[in-house]
């Protein structure tokens, strides 16, 4: 992982998961692993994907991922990523969600995470711990903004989602995919809602948005990204992206150029 900030005397941070920062190359991945403490990972530049058995959470530069203690998870980075890892001591994790999530990063949360994962030493004893309390307060008060793509358990549904993972731009209808998977459109529609908590259209849209974030982070134009990820025109892509991410693709790329790490 990135260069670590040394824990201050008396810190309860586990030594095997220190807080720190570092630049990750495009496509860099970390194999599944677990931690005794909680973990926040913030991409100050670039895009981060965190995967658990429950699915994948994607965090562009205006989001932060949260993984509670004990959850096996892996990471993948898209674009050259300024990765910031912040350990949350186990005794403080009860104040946060008990499942992996993605949260919006506001100005105060961003500056606190950047400070805690930087090289600057504590100005006064206990300063880092007090700033960590600010981070927890910000997360506790911030509505969850989940770019979560859940994964299927049912074999028929898994066959369909595997086809779409292999080719997110595939234009097939649910009925057409069902014929390949050996299940009716009605059965698959029911499984999408009961297992994944969303419609087929919504699941495929989020899958495409995940891939779109990677393309945009690499510098691909909005129009080319729309075509590569399965949208028939840039306007429909912009609407879908804005609905899921909360900003347009153009403003997302602009933020990548002017974010904290680029200044």
Automatic annotation (TrEMBL):
It comes from the Bacteria. The keyword Nucleotide-binding does not apply. Residues 1-14 have a biased composition (Polar residues). Residues 158-255 form the HTH araC/xylS-type domain. The keyword DNA-binding applies. Residues 1-30 are annotated as: Disordered. Keywords: DNA-binding. InterPro entries: AraC-bd, HTH_AraC. PANTHER family: HTH-TYPE TRANSCRIPTIONAL REGULATOR NIMR. This is AraC family transcriptional regulator. It comes from Streptomyces niphimycinicus.
